[in-house]
Specification:
Elements lengths: L1 E5 L6 E3 L2 E3 L3 E5 L9 H4 L2 H12 L15 E14 L8 E20 L2 E14 L6 H9 L3 E6 L5 E3 L8 H6 L16 E9 L7 E14 L4 E12 L14 E14 L4 E17 L9 E18 L2
Antiparallel strand pairs: 1-4, 2-3, 5-6, 5-15, 6-7, 7-8, 8-9, 10-11, 11-12, 12-13, 13-14, 14-15
């Protein structure tokens, strides 16, 4: 604040028959200023640090779809299996590739204490290589347009509620999604780890134990979009019926996985998820007859590539 004033007795004084003009002085009152004293002391670098701190606020990553929305999803998955049996000569490599595409709709119905109850419907399924005459394809076609109820928790885990068919495509799409998100708020650059179990494609009845590390890489659209990366390792958690447990002479499995996840926090759903899992298995082979030479184990490499996209229907 600026004040003006003059000495006491101000007014005009006559000196020697003349006059003198009053003398004014300026007073600066900083204590009465509306600006905080801290503003005078902070250099530009400190102000920049304050701005960065505001951007580094933690966010809560949750799956909370809006009741009544219709979410359209598209699953693309490819499984490449390569087997090497050195006991059958140099040319003993066998390769098989299968792919599947599933188009699904999901409609959130109501909130429960354990998550969101949703109704899912399979619109179409495409497999390569195709076998239209097989009973499997007929069963798959009959599953199309049949609704299935599933429960989705806030941390991303999905559970089929009333699907009696253990081999249905909806169970294949949703039933293999374990909890992935952190239970507490995280900041950009922060990591968290999760342990989960997933079925092993191409090895019915077996489950892989996964230990994965997730990282919130960045936020977009003013914090509405969360970009997450993940990587981890996998081992075989159990053995199928009649097979040896993992040991030096039985069935050994190990693998790695990597991927990315994109969450639309305003939509409350995962809109893009890409993952790649590479599994290496060693299967011991028993000689056909007692006393025969030991057969070299079979080496199997399985690569599973999956891409799930989702959007709200207009």
């Amino acid at each position: 604040m600026i004040r003006t004033g003059s000495k006491a007795g101000g007014g005009r004084r006559e000196v020697g028959g003349g006059t003198t003009k009053p003398r004014y002085r300026l007073k600066f009152d900083l204590s009465a200023s509306r600006l905080s004293p801290l503003a005078y002391r902070l250099p530009p670098l400190a102000l920049a640090l304050f701005a960065q701190t505001a951007l580094a606020q933690s966010v809560l990553l949750q799956i909370r779809p809006h009741i009544g929305d219709t979410l359209r999803m598209h699953l693309s998955q490819t499984v490449e299996m390569t087997g090497i049996n050195s006991s059958r000569g140099p040319d003993s490599t066998t390769t098989m590739t299968t792919s599947i595409e599933v188009f699904t709709r999901a409609v959130p119905s109501r909130l429960t204490s354990s998550g969101t109850l949703m109704q899912a419907i399979t619109d179409s399924v495409k497999m390569t290589p195709a076998s239209p005459a097989s009973l499997e394809d007929l069963r798959r076609r009959s599953m199309q347009a049949r609704p299935v109820w599933l429960r989705v928790s806030t941390d991303g885990a999905m559970e089929i509620v009333d699907d009696a068919d253990a081999n249905s495509e909806l169970r294949h799409l949703f039933g293999e999604m374990p909890a992935m998100l952190a239970r507490q708020a995280v900041a950009v650059g922060e990591k968290w780890t999760r342990e989960m179990q997933i079925p092993l494609s191409g090895d019915p009845g077996t489950v892989g134990e996964v230990k994965a590390t997730f990282r919130l890489d960045s936020l977009g659209r003013n914090g509405d979009i969360a970009y997450i990366s993940m990587h981890g390792t996998m081992s075989r958690a159990n053995a199928a019926s009649g097979q040896a447990q993992p040991n030096g002479r039985g069935y050994m499995t190990s693998g790695t996985l990597a991927g990315t996840i994109q969450i639309d926090r305003r939509l409350g759903w995962i809109t893009d998820s890409k993952s790649s899992i590479i599994v290496r298995s060693t299967i011991a082979q028993t000689p056909a007859r007692k006393g025969d030479a030991q057969i070299a184990p079979m080496q199997v490499r399985t690569k599973i590539t999956q891409w799930i996209r989702a959007m709200r229907a207009r």
